Amino acid sequence: MFRSALRSTLSAGFVVAAMATASAQVLEIGADLGPTGLDPHLITAFPSFMVVNGNIYEGLTAIDRDLKIIPSLAESWTISADGKTYTFKLRSGVRFHDGSALEAADVVASVKRLLSKDIASPLASRLSAVESANATDAQTVELKLKEPSAALLSSLATIAIVPRSMETNKDALQKTPVGTGPFKFQEWQPNGYILLTKNEVYWEKGLPKLSGLKFNIVPESATRQVGLTNGQYALLPNIDAATALQLKGKPNVKLAETMDLAYTLVGMNVSKPPFDNPKVREAVNYAINRKEIVEAALFGAGVPGGPLSPALKSWALDVKEFGCYAHDPAKAQALLKEAGVTTPVAVSMKVLPRQDIKDVAQVVQEQLNKVGFKVELINQEQGQFIQDWRNSNFDMFASINAGQPDPDEYFYRTFRTGGSTNVFKYSDAEIDSLLDKARTLSDQAERKTAYDQVQKKLACSGPVAHLTYGTLFSAMNDKLKGYDVMPNRSLMMLRSASY
Amino acid sequence: MTCTGAAFLHAPVLFFFEELALMNRVLLARLIDLVIVLFGVSIIVFLMIRLIPGDAVAIMLGANTEITPERMAELNRRVGLDRPIVEQYVLWAGAALHGDFGTSLWTGRPVATEILMHLWPTLELTFLALVIGAVLAVPVGCHMAQTHGGAADVAMRIGAIAGLTIPSFWLGIVMILLLSAWAPGFASLGYVPFSEDPIGNLQRMLLPSIALALPILANLSRLVRSAMLDALGQDYIRTARAKGLPERRVVYKHALRNALIPFLTSVGIMTGYLLGGAIVVEQVFAIPGLGRLILGAIAERNYPLIQATILVVTAGFVIVNFLVDFLYILVDPRVRA
Which of A200, A305, A312, A339 could pair with A279 in a Cys bridge, judged by C-beta atoms 3.0 to 4.6 Å apart? Predict the structure, then answer.
C-alpha cells in the first residue's frame, strides 16, 4: 500500500517534470567534465571547447561533419595569387550577444587579442603566419601573411571572434562569454551545470530550434548512463566505445558514430638510447599488433591507423602502405639485433591516467616484451604526466591526442625540428624540408604528394608509433533530431537540432 | 523527555553562572586553538600543493598543446605564479587576513563565492545524513543491546557490518539503478537549491543522504550497542530495576545517558569528515559539493581555491569539535569538575 502510494507520488512528480521539459525544450546534456574557463582564446581542453565552439562562439570559417571548410562569419573569401593575402567578406546582419553588430573591426581586434602578449593565448601559434590584420571597410577584413599558410582556413575555424571591446580585457570572457553563436551564455554553476539560452537574433533564420542547452557536469560514467536511460539527460556527447556498448539497445536511446580524429599513440624519446636508433623504433612498429589493440582495448570499435586519421579521407594513406604495420615479431627481433642493442631492452612507459589508455598500454607492453623489450609501465597523475611530457622526461609514453583537420596543423608542430610539441626531440632533414614546402603549396595534389612521403617515413621510423583511431559515439534520446557526432568533437550541429 | 533536559531542571540557579564563566574560558581557549590550527594548516597546505609535481599552467594547457616557453612564462605571470614562493605566501596571507581569499586561478571568480556555492549542498547532505544515521542509531543500538545474543541482535549486527563494508559508490550506483527501474523519471541526479525547488531538492538528496547515512548508522549503532551493554551491567541499573522502574525508562534514561559520551565523540568526528565533502557520493550523484570543489581544484592546481577551501574545512572541523566538547559538559556533570 505504502509502496504503491509512494510510487504514484513519484510518477506524478515525473509527469510534472516531463511537462516542464516539453515546454521549455532546453536540451539536457550529460558531460563528464566541467570547463576550466570560457574565454575562447585561453582554453585548450575538450570540456571548454565543447561548450563554446559553434554554440557560443563562431570563427570566420567552420569545419563541417566531413571535415570540409565551410563559411561561417565570413560569407566568402579570396586568396591572392602569392598566397599571402586573404580577404574575407563578412556576413551581414550578425549581432553579438551584447547587441552590438559584427564588423570588420571586431575580427581585427580578435586576431590582435589572440596574438597579444598580455592575453598570453596558447592558441597564438595557430596564427603565427599572420603578419597583420586590417579592416578595409566595415564588412571586409584583410589578413596579410609572412609566408603562405595552407592550413590557415582550417585554423581560423577554431579562432573565435569576440567583440572589439574585449581586445585588452583579460578576465571578463572567462566568466561571461560574449559571442555571435546560436546560443548565449546564461549561467555557470561550477561543478553543477552551464546553461545557455537561445540567441533570438541569430543570423541564420529559423535557428536554433532548441530554446537552450544545459551542460550538466556528471563525473561518474554509470550515472550519466542512468541519466540518459531514465530521461533526465537527452544527450551524452562524444563517448567511448565501452560506454556506447552498454547503452546499445536500451529503450529510447539511439547512438550516432563517426571515425574519431583523435588517436592513441606511443611516443618515443629519440634524444637518448635506445630510441635514438631508427631501427629500434621500427622494431617497435613491427612488434605492435594494432588489430589486437583495437579488440582488447577499444572493444573492436576502431581501426589501426597511421599518422593521419582515416577520417581525413583526402589525406590519409591506407595502412597497407606502411610495411612495418604488418605485425611481425621475428622481424622486430632481427631489427633489434641489427641495431646492436642488448636485449632485453629495459625502457619505461609513462601512461596517461585514462582507463582506455591504461588498457592500450598494457597490451603494448605485452607485445613489446615478447620481442625483447622489457617495458615498465608507470601510471601517473595527470599533472605529473603533462609535466614529464613537456620536459621530454620519458623513454616512452602512451597517450591519446586530438587530431586536426589539416595535416600541417599536426605534423609541423610535432615533427618539425624545434616544433612546439616536438617533445620527442625528433629531427630529420627530409621531413623538415617536406613540411616546410608543403605548408606553402596551394595545389591540393602537390600537397598530398608531399604529405604522402611524410606519412610513409613517419609511420615506421618516426618518434611516434600511431596505434589506433577509435570510433567516436554520441548517445541520445531518440526524440533528439538533427544532431550528429562530429570527428573533431564539436557540438556545433546542435544549432539545427530539435527535441 | 531526555535525560539531558532533566539534569538542568534539578541544577541550582547559581550553578548556571559558574557554567557561563567556564564556557567563556573554554571558548577563548578554543578560539586561540583555532587560530593556531588555521595558521599551521595554511602553511602546510601552501607548501604541499606546490611540492606536488605538475604546475597549474601546464595542466590548464593539457597534454599536446602547442605553446612556446615564452607564452608559458606569460601565463605564469598572468596568474602570479612567477613570484618566489615566500612572496606568494606573504601576499596571500596578508590579503586573507583582510578577508580576501583571492580569485580562482583561471575563472577569476572570487574564491569565497565559489566556496559558498559549494558549501550549501555539503551542509544539506551532512545534516540529512546525520539526522538519518544518528537518530536511527540510538533506538537500533539500544534494541540490539537489550536483545543481545538474540536473533534480532545477530541480524542487526550482520546488517551493521554490511553497512560498514559496502563501499558507498557501489551502493550509490545500485540505488540509482534500482530507483530508475522502479520509478523511471524520478529525478535523482544533480542538485537544485532548496529555495528554488524544495521537492526537486529533496528528491535529489534522498539517495545520497541514505548512501552517506548507512555507514554512519552502522558505525554508531554498534557503538551504542556496546556502550549500552557496558552500562546495563552496572550496579545502578540493577538498583533502577529493583525499585520497579519500567524497562524502557531504565534503558533510555539511566543507561543511555552514560553511553552518550562515546556516541557524541563519534558524531563529532563524522560531522567533521562530512563537512569536508563526501567526494565519492558527490561524484556518483553529480552534486556540486565541497568534495568535488577540492578534488577539481587539486587536479588543476588551483592554488588559491585549494588553500581557502582547506582552511574552511579545517575551521569546520575545529568548530564541530568545540561544539562536541560543549555537549559533553551538558551531558556529563563529571566533565565540569
Answer: A339
The answer, yes or no, to whether residue B9 has pLDDT greater than 50, is no
For the domain made up of A263-470, the CATH class stated in words is alpha beta
- Print burial letters for B265-297: b (CB count within 10 Å at least 16), e (below 16): bbbbebbbebbbbbbbbbbbbbbbbbbbbbbbb
Residue A89: which H helix or E strand, with range?
Answer: strand A85-90
Interface-testing mutation among B49, B67, B115, B284, with chain A (most A C-beta atoms within 10 A): B67
Candidates B106, B203, B204: best to mutate against A (most CBs of A within 10 A) is B106
Calpha distance B206→B210 (Å, rounded):
6
Query: What is the C-alpha to C-alpha distance for residues B263 and B220, in angstroms, rounded to an integer?
Result: 7
Q: Which of B62, B108, B301 sits opposite A44 (nearest CB)?
A: B62
Compute the half-sphere exposure of residue B234: CA atoms within 13 Å on the CB side of its CA.
17
Chain B: closest CA distance from residue A107 (Å): 22
Name, in order, each residue with C-beta under 8 angstroms of A201's C-beta and a sequence gap of 6 or more. A95
Q: Which of A372, A401, A423, A452 is nearest to A44 (CA)?
A: A401
How far is residue A336's CA from residue A268's CA, in Å, rounded to a whole number? 15
Residue A254 C-alpha, separation from nearest chain B C-alpha, in angstroms: 18
**Looking at chain B, which residue has its C-alpha nearest residue A39?**
B107
At residue A464, the 3 state secondary structure works out as strand
Question: Residue B158's CB: how many other CB atoms inside 10 A?
Answer: 10
Angle at A81 between CA A77 and CA A82, to 5 degrees: 110
Question: For residue A390, how many other CB atoms are within 10 A of its CB?
Answer: 21
The strand pair at A345-351 and A396-401 is best described as parallel
Quote the cell numbers at residue A26. 532546453
Structure-block grid coordinates of residue A29: 546534456
Q: Can you give A49-82 as a three-state secondary structure string?
A: HHHHECCCECCCEEECCCCCEEECCEEEEEECCC
**First and final C-alpha spacing in chain B:** 26
Grid cell of B295 as nine digits: 578534488
Mean pLDDT rounded to a whole number for chain A? 90
Q: Are strands A183-189 and A302-304 parallel, antiparallel or unpaired?
A: unpaired
Please state the ipTM of this predicted complex.
0.80
Of B59, B74, B184, the CB nearest to A230: B184
Q: Where are the domains of chain A?
A: 8-56+176-258+472-496, 61-172, 263-470
C-alpha triplet A99, A104, A105: angle, nearest 5°:
80
Which amino acid, A315? Answer: W
Domain A61-172 belongs in CATH node 3.90.76.10: yes
Q: How confident is the model at residue B13 (pLDDT cuts 50, 70, 90)?
A: low
By Cβ distance, the residue of A42, A120, A387 closest to B58 is A387
Interface touch B184/A120, C-beta < 8 Å: no
| B11 CB neighbour count, 10 Å cutoff | 12
Angle between helices B303-331 and B13-51 (to 10 degrees): 160
State which fold the A8-56+176-258+472-496 domain adopts: D-Maltodextrin-Binding Protein; domain 2 (3.40.190)
> With an 8 Å Cβ cutoff, is B95 touching chain A?
no
The DSSP letter of residue A91 is: P
pLDDT in tens, A243-291: 899 999 998 999 999 999 999 999 999 999 999 999 999 999 999 999 9
What confidence tens digit (pLDDT) does each residue in A107-164 have?
Answer: 999 999 999 888 888 888 889 889 999 999 999 999 999 988 888 999 999 999 999 9
Q: Is B80 on the interface with A (CB under 8 A)?
A: no
Map residue A438 onto helix, strand or coil.
helix
User: How is residue B277 annotated by DSSP?
Assistant: -
Please, which contacts does A181-185 make with residues 24 or more away whose CB atoms are closer than 8 Å? A181/A54, A181/A55, A181/A56, A181/A57, A181/A58, A181/A495, A182/A55, A182/A207, A182/A208, A182/A494, A182/A495, A183/A55, A183/A56, A183/A208, A183/A212, A183/A213, A183/A494, A183/A495, A184/A56, A184/A97, A185/A38, A185/A56, A185/A97
